[in-house]
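Appendix B.2, paired examples.
Example (i):
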Amino acid sequence: MLHRIGLSSILAYCAVAGVIGGVSARGAEPLKVGDRAPDFSVTGIDGKQFSLSDKLKSGKHLVLIFSRAHW
């Protein structure tokens, strides 16, 4: 019985997360290979602001790695 309740809870969570994710991404068009990345800015752990456009001004190559970290 507890296994069934746990499984039902997980399925309900996934369904809600899928609906929320679909709603938030509905207005965005996917990028195609060769498209320019949209500019964005983030705050580093030291409090400094970084933007994609600022980093690209140097003319050097830039590699971005997005990782889901669970600390």
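Example (ii):
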Amino acid sequence: MQESTMSPAPRPVDPSASPLHLLGVGLRRCREQCGLTLEAVGAQVSVDWSHLARWERGERHPPEDVVARLDEVYGAGGFLVALQAMTNTSGRPVRDQAPQWDGERMDVLRRRLIGGVAAMGVAAVAGMPALDGISNLRGVVDSALGNRPHVEDWEETAWEYAYAVLAPSIMGVVRDLSADVLGFQEAMTSASGKEVSRWLRVNAQLSTLLAFALGSIGQQRESHHWWRVAARAAEQTGEGELLAAVYGHEAVQALHEGRPLPLVVSRATRAIELTKGRACRAASAAYGARAHARVLLGDLAGALADLDEQASLFERMPAEVVADAQSVNGWPQTRVLYCRSLVYTFGGHPDAAQMQMEAITAYPGWQTRQKAQVELHQAYTEVRSGHIESGVEHARSVLDTLPDDHVNRFVIHNAAAVAAAVPAVERSRPPVIEYREMLALSRRLDAPHH
């Protein structure tokens, strides 16, 4: 339930309240003097209104960079910044401090990580203990040199993994990313007060990437847990767009894992609400995921409306986001065209063939997996049009030509749709039987390793 536009009369300030609660009072008084609602302020500073409400109640400590933006919006002349500085130096615990880990617990976590990654069947696990020893040696050298972790290094690490998780074969990426997530927790314990918000942001980014990577290799159960971790980490930053990115990524992956469609719609809708109409990757992905879910639920009109919203956002998308076709942070035109091809295909729209061709011709030659997914849309349309054997053969040819490491959850999702489109009375045809057997094998290859 949202805060009322009309705030009640302010209560007297309790002089015995904690500095955090006094900061909350200051935030609320400044907002009320400006005649602004929580929703209006949230839109101006790119923060969900619910976080603002918690900060005003003194339940959580707001990040310093957000307080600086609020101070500017309210015209407080540095008052809120100074008040927060007093809160941070009051000697009382605050909620934006980095978590502390003792060395013994880190060693236990490290051993569990090695065992857990081994259980997944991730390649080169045998080398992990040796790599762990090298990592410990590096820590000794860093300590001798007086080096402390720099948040800039970890920001770059997260940026690199945003590219790595889209590689065709990411088993090794999952191993390295898991180890780096653990290493990051150690490094974050030395975060200074001025940089805590940046460390929290990287924590959310790395958690999101690990959730995505685990889902991509078929570790569905573990991926679900990490999506929750990522959402909590993003909430700690107070950045609505970062939390929206978590929900948007999860919605897309949930579709291809066969999770309940209402859950997909819920995650996507929440992401859209958090972005508040801003043209960003998170909003576009969320609209695409919701359109996909709606067409599977039989709501073609709602799905097409979401595609129109997505197209409108794309026209306002920052150029650097549109130009990024190789990382999870980008949203090039090919992704817009893919979403449209998918919805038109599964919705049986008369323009499906046209949308499929537009998407295929837009992909550069190196994006063979993505192009193959749209070719599977074409095969689906053939089957739905009554050309069962040619459609199934088309789909089989697509899978045959793809390297094994390109056959991931997203490909399997589209390939399975082709098989499901075959009417029950036609499933005894030899080409259909052979295709379903081939698909079953692909699913086993893509399934989680136990």
